[in-house]
Write a structure and sequence with these properties.
With about 325 residues, the protein is an alpha/beta fold. Helix content is about 35%, strand content about 10%. It is globular, with a radius of gyration of 18 Å.
């Protein structure tokens, strides 16, 4: 049953920033892992958590690039992690276990966005699904001992409003036929929410709570890739001069605003006692099952019942275990 999926009155809005959410919160003594914590949204999430006192480890495939990107965040660690490589995931978890540190929050942030051509990982899994779901599933399970040790840990998985319409292709997860970049992305983001629902069901009684967060539509301040400007203009994300349009009320956010919902799920005490929910605009999202088209003036991103379906969540968990066996 869907019970906690309703706003709780945090007082935050779509325009709230990560620093606003963490104002007055002391995270000293808490260890946090942020996958892809060096790029744009991940960087701001890492920065805000570290500024509040957390010990942040950025997990990245390219450690040199990540280290260069986080030189402005005092004390942050960078560790190697390739979410499409099971051996790399196991090695990361083994290093963490050897350190003896509990893990107070895991931010599953890394993702692949709209790969135009179908790409597969070494085991034949579609790369968007492999990175955003399979890799984070394996990582979370491998880090369970450290999360349990923390006694009150959070697992925050970054999803998207695309989860509303994303479909799990149960019989063709790898898109052996009919590959479409948008559909592949939507499947991965729907999987993020379903994973959150089942993770929380399984481990809430043991002190681990799970959240999925939609940060908003964030394309950065620019300058933008010239090949994408026409598409951005069609979506109402840039104006006729190519300048980024910021409209938090319509989901078009700055990086600082987008990271607000992530740090809410990762660290805010306002969410104590609940879990297995989808977050949006600094609060638990409402459920809206009306079919709403995506237009330049309307970006539907509320929760719907399908993305929170507990039966689908259990089915995906079982299927994922089989894929990773």
């Amino acid at each position: 049953m869907i019970t906690d999926q309703h706003p709780i009155g945090t007082g935050f809005t779509a325009a709230t920033t990560a620093d606003d959410v963490l104002a007055g919160i002391d995270l000293t003594g808490r260890d946090v892992v942020v996958t892809g914590g060096h790029g744009r949204l991940g960087h701001e999430t890492s920065r805000a958590l570290a500024a509040a006192g957390a010990s942040v480890t950025v997990a990245a495939r390219d450690t040199d690039r990540a280290s260069a990107a986080v030189t402005d965040i005092p004390g942050v660690r960078v560790e190697q992690l390739d979410l499409t490589d099971p051996a790399s995931i196991d090695a990361f978890a083994a290093r963490w276990s050897a350190s003896g540190r509990p893990l107070h929050a895991l931010v599953n942030n890394a993702s692949t966005l709209f790969t135009p051509d179908r790409q597969l990982d070494a085991r034949g899994n579609e790369r968007s699904f492999s990175t955003a779901h399979l890799g984070h599933f394996q990582l979370t399970r491998a880090l369970l001992p450290a999360l349990l040790e923390a006694r009150g840990a959070r697992v925050l998985t970054v999803t998207s409003g695309a989860a509303r319409n994303g479909q799990i292709r149960w019989d063709d997860l790898a898109f052996a036929s009919g590959y479409d970049a948008g559909a592949a992305y939507g499947q991965a983001k729907r999987a993020n929410v379903l994973f959150t629902v089942e993770l929380d069901r399984r481990y809430a009684d043991q002190g681990i709570r799970a959240f999925a967060a939609h940060p908003g539509v964030i394309i950065g301040p620019g300058p933008h890739d010239p090949s994408r400007v026409a598409s951005y203009r069609q979506q109402g994300l840039v104006d006729e001069h190519g300048a980024t349009i910021i409209d938090p009320s319509n989901g078009k956010k700055t990086i600082e605003q987008g990271a607000a919902t992530l740090v809410l799920g990762a660290a805010s005490p306002l969410l104590d006692g609940i879990g297995g929910v989808y977050l949006k605009d600094g609060d638990v999202a409402v459920i809206d099952d009306e079919v709403r088209p995506l237009t330049a003036d309307s970006i539907p991103a509320d929760a719907n019942s399908a993305m929170l379906d507990p039966d689908d969540a259990r089915r995906l968990w079982t299927l994922t275990e089989q894929l990773l066996a």
